[in-house]
TrEMBL record:
GO MF annotation: an example: 4 iron, 4 sulfur cluster binding
Record carries keyword Iron-sulfur: yes
Pfam families the UniProt entry points to: Molybdopterin (PF00384), Molydop_binding (PF01568)
Residues in Molybdopterin oxidoreductase domain copies: 112-551
Name of protein: Molybdopterin-dependent oxidoreductase alpha subunit
GO cellular component, one term: membrane
Residues covered by the Molybdopterin dinucleotide-binding domain: 633-729
Keywords attached to this entry: Iron, Iron-sulfur, Metal-binding
């Protein structure tokens, strides 16, 4: 790795980029650390001894496995506040209507939930009750009830997911799901079908020294900030970086890595080649690239012959797809597609990275298959500096589905079939249902239709993470009971309900006795020990809440469900249930970790499919959806962690929460100056915001979520993964002069 300064990669000659529009990372770090209201010494111990509970990059304390430098970012510091704040005054929840007038941020600022609380049907608010009473009440309602369970939030570790899914299955249903459903479920489906493994095939170290990294619908500058440091080093070693996006993300163009002297001072030009696409247009572009690779004979014939199946069909199908069709869908030109094809053709190694710009469409699975086709065509899988990399979202997404907290999968990601169900029935000693359960999105429909009795939501917030909040609110109100397990109060707890609402206080991952594990994007199962410090009220670990609920509902199974040995016992059971998590049972101290599958999955081109071959799939371009004069709008992340908003203004582009990002071309065409108030209307609703010019592909808009969720159509979901379409077709109208 070169230590020399390299001005060609500098973003600006102005020291520290003074005067440039960009976030001030040092100020951000300082502001975030100041926001820690609780015990600062405890906060420091969490930083130095814990595994970060933010994104899925993964840490041990403030170190990682990719480079020998400090690993810390402002997301982690912002989340620290949640982990260290003292208990709230529960009297605030005595008047639920008044509490509901607080913003979600104000609700969180109240502090941690200290005790179980109950709001009986018709009562104005919540009152404190004991754990026994709370659990017995829930158990009584759970008997024979139609149950749906959703677990998520950035904090949830593997042990909680595993124990919870087993407990729910003991209650006779597979309707247990987690945030992976509304995040990377299309990647899981498509990767399993094509390469036989539903995870990133390479490691972060493979970025450094790769010839090419292609980011498709992914913005690590905001969402995995420390990854930018890896990219700085990659660029130093000669890696070229390509971005395929509907928006030329400013943070991906230029980034000032705070922990690196050269980059902190002069910034780093990150993206070498930017290719604009329409929102939803990736298949047009990716198939176009493949068409060029075939026509120019740039495919890796040896790899295709020896390690893959289905290439001929794909070759024939892209040959039939016309350039005009691919250009119209993608919004890009065939020359641009050729440019990327040439780069891929010349590269000896490449990593293809994707994220929410790819998955959150009704055809998210097809988008992912189109990416896999490219990687297989060039043999970019299973060797150093190559790989398929769906950057996982938060630190609970990779493990959630692998632990089986998934309506369509058992532990280890096994599909729910009678044979697999009976395997687990035998292992666990009770009958595991053999039909898939309700996915997160389907649970909301069932509740809306009056076909669900009880919803248990651990973390999460359906009012803010799913399309159409009004529909979700109606659905939440129609249940006979809701159980919210959380560390802080949230807006969905306060939604009205035809039945009782129970709040159960959870511990954070740092409070759990015996320590816990998470799985990072690069499949590293990382131990995070219990961190000594203040403890809040009567909060329990989530695994214990779930197992106790199930044990009291079905006392005859209690001994099969409870874990008197705590998290260590759960890890032993995970090792039995999920063979590829071999080694998890031995993790017990700070720094312990095991990367399942090793540095590469599909090493040497041997795929974990029945015949050992990787599969090409014919990917037909989706039909064009946009009538003349309308726009496609996507929901984006600003300064927030999912539904938790941290700042009104995004330092990267200056966008406030109500910004409507629009291309200068469209803004000029429509005579819209920055700040003009406009209304977007679509099939599901209306949104009012203010124009902000930004380098978007013309015809496309972006707004922040959760505010923008009012525009999203709840009926639009992908067929297999059941991910909602987090985009909408809208018209735009100026509302004020
Ligand atoms: N600070 C912070 N960090 C986070 C999170 C957070 O909320 N805040 N969330 C975590 C989670 S759960 C996740 S899943 C990840 C999300 O990480 P990302 O997926 O990087 O998140 P988004 O901000 O949604 O970025 C989506 C990108 O896709 C682009 N895009 C939108 N539509 C399309 C399209 O159709 N095609 C293409 N090619 N591009 C498109 C957008 O312009 C944007 O750059 O981040 C994780 N880390
Ligand atoms: N419009 C739109 N919607 C989206 C997306 C999008 O791009 N656009 N992205 C989607 C994606 S990628 C994801 S992953 C989901 C995220 O969806 P979720 O993971 O469901 O949502 P979060 O906002 O992370 O959940 C935050 C809630 O968890 C609770 N919480 C915080 N910490 C803890 C803890 O330690 N334990 C427990 N039990 N609870 C805690 C808080 O009360 C908070 O209300 O949202 C999806 N929704
Ligand atoms: S980049 Fe991700 S894992 Fe690293 S400190 Fe930030 S939030 Fe945590
Ligand atoms: Mo996510």
């Amino acid at each position: 790795m070169s230590k020399r300064l390299d001005p060609r990669n500098w973003a600006s000659w102005k020291p520290f980029g003074i005067g440039e529009r960009k976030p001030n990372n040092y100020l951000e770090l300082w502001k975030a650390f100041r926001s820690v209201k609780g015990n600062r010494r405890y906060a420091w111990r969490i930083l130095t001894k814990g595994t970060c509970d933010g994104c899925a990059l993964g840490t041990r304390g403030m170190r990682d496995w990719t480079m020998d430098e400090i690993h810390l970012c402002n997301i982690r510091l912002r989340l620290l506040k949640l982990n260290t704040m003292p208990a709230m005054d529960p009297a605030v929840l005595a008047d639920a209507a008044a509490a509901a007038r607080l913003s979600s941020a104000q609700l969180r600022d109240l502090g941690r939930l200290p005790y179980p609380m109950l709001r009986r049907r018709g009562e104005p608010g919540f009152t404190r009750i004991g754990w026994d009473e709370a659990l017995d009440l829930a158990a009584e309602r759970l008997r024979g009830a139609r149950l749906g369970t959703y677990l998520t939030s950035r904090g949830v570790p593997n042990e909680n997911y595993f124990a919870a899914q087993k407990a729910v299955r003991a209650l006779g249903t597979n309707s247990v799901d987690n945030a992976a459903r509304i995040c990377h479920s299309p990647s899981t489906v498509a990767l399993k079908q094509t390469i036989g493994a539903a995870a990133t095939t390479c490691s972060y170290t493979d970025w450094i020294g790769s010839d090419l990294i292609v980011f498709i619908g992914s913005n690590p500058s905001n969402n995995q900030p420390v990854a930018m440091k890896y990219l700085y080093h990659a660029k130093k070693s000669g890696t070229r970086i390509v971005m395929l996006n509907a928006y030329r993300e400013p943070g991906m163009d230029r980034y000032w890595v705070p922990s690196n002297a050269e980059s902190a001072l002069f910034g780093t030009k990150i993206t070498d080649h930017f290719f604009p696409v329409n929102i939803g247009g990736d298949i047009g572009f990716l198939n176009g690239v493949l068409k060029h690779l075939v026509e120019r004979d740039l495919v890796d014939k040896k790899f295709i012959d020896e390690h893959t199946a289905g290439f001929e069909d794909v070759r024939a199908s892209v040959a039939e797809q016309s350039w005009e069709e691919l250009e119209a869908l993608s919004g890009a030109t065939r020359e641009q597609m050729a440019e990327l094809a040439e780069m891929l053709g010349a590269a000896r190694s490449a990593v293809l990275v994707w994220s929410m710009g790819i998955t959150q469409h009704t055809y998210g699975e097809r988008n992912v298959r189109a990416i896999v086709n490219l990687a297989l065509a060039r043999g970019f899988v299973g060797r150093d500096n190559c790989g398929l990399m769906p950057i996982r979202g938060h630190s609970g997404v990779q493990g959630g589905a692998e632990m089986g907290a998934y309506a369509t999968g058992l532990p280890g990601g096994l599909p729910i079939t009678p044979a697999n169900a009976s395997r687990f029935s035998e292992a666990w000693g009770f009958e595991v249902p053999d039909q898939p359960g309700l996915t997160a999105t389907d649970m909301i429909d069932a509740a809306h239709a009056g076909e669900l009795d009880v919803l248990i939501s651990s973390g999460g917030n359906f009012l803010e993470v799913l399309p159409d909040p009004r529909y979700c609110r109606e659905a939440l109100s129609r249940l006979k009971m809701r159980v919210h397990i959380d560390i802080v109060p949230s807006s969905q707890m306060l939604a009205d309900c035809d039945g009782d609402v129970l709040l159960l206080p959870a511990q954070t991952r740092y409070e759990m006795e015996g320590g816990v594990t998470e799985t990072s994007t690069e499949r590293r199962v990382i131990f995070s020990p219990e961190v000594p410090g203040p403890r809040v009220g009567e909060a329990w670990p989530e695994w214990k809440i779930f197992t106790e609920l199930a044990a009291r509902t079905r006392p005859e199974l209690a001994d099969l469900i409870r874990y008197p040995g705590g998290t260590a016992q759960i890890r032993r059971e995970i090792e039995e249930a999920v063979p590829f998590y071999q080694g998890i049972a031995a993790l017990k101290e700070f720094g312990d970790n095991v990367q399942y599958g090793g540095r590469h999955l599909c090493a040497e081109g041997r795929f974990p499919t029945p015949d050992g071959l990787g599969r090409f799939t014919v990917v037909d371009p989706p039909a064009l959806q946009r009538p003349d004069g309308s726009f496609m709008v996507a929901t984006r992340r600003g300064k927030q962690f999912n539904s938790m908003i941290h700042e009104r203004r995004d330092g990267f582009n200056g966008a406030t929460r109500d910004a409507v990002l629009i291309s200068p071309y469209d803004a000029d065409r429509l005579g819209l100056a920055d700040g003009t108030e406009v209304e977007l209307s679509g099939a599901a609703g209306r949104f009012t915001g203010r124009v902000l010019r930004a380098p978007l592909t013309p015809g496309n808009l972006q707004i922040h979520w959760p505010e923008g969720n009012v525009l999203l159509d709840v009926t639009r979901r992908s067929p297999a993964a059941r991910i909602p379409d987090y985009n909408a077709v809208v018209t735009l109208r100026r509302t004020a002069p």
